Amino acid sequence: MTQEEVDLQIEEAEERMQHAITHLKYELAKLRAGKASVQMLDGIMVEYYGVPTPLNQVANVSTADAKTLTIHPWEKKMLPVIEKAIFEANLGLTPMNNGEVILINIPPLTEERRRELAKKAKAEGEEAKIAIRSARHKAMDFIKKSVKEGYPEDTGKRMEDKVQELTNTYIKKVDALIAAKEKDIMTI
Q1: What does the alpha-carbon distance between residue 126 and residue 121 come to, in Å, rounded to a whole number?
Q2: pTM of the predicted model, to two decimals?
Q3: Domain check: are 9 and 97 in the same one?
């Protein structure tokens, strides 16, 4: 095994770790913290000519203010379909259809709902940590295999330390993201 191959493996591990952070940020953005956010409706699919289509591809979703989401469908006949999809998504949101747009008032979170959301944020954080550890495990196995095949042992040890440092850095990033989200959720 060459130094280049080991470096490439470490680079791939870091990319997977970064991807875990990116995915975590995306998932945390969907958790509402009492403020209106267009990401809250990400993942909602509506029937559009018989095809399940993401909401943001059939309507313009925006925030009117900190407590209100506005959905402007591109076709008026989509109003009831969008309304139904939001109800079925079971987000705890009540859409109001005024014939032109759909308004969603974001209710204040109850203490119980805040705790639920904080738990969900922690669970998402754990998923990210698992992905990061998996990337570390794959890189470590590759380095150990390389050492058995003749790669210098002391260099292998340094590379393992480098992978562990990367892992620690990314785990700290996950912890920081989760702590910030929990604070956001629990702040009234």
Answers
A1: 9
A2: 0.72
A3: no
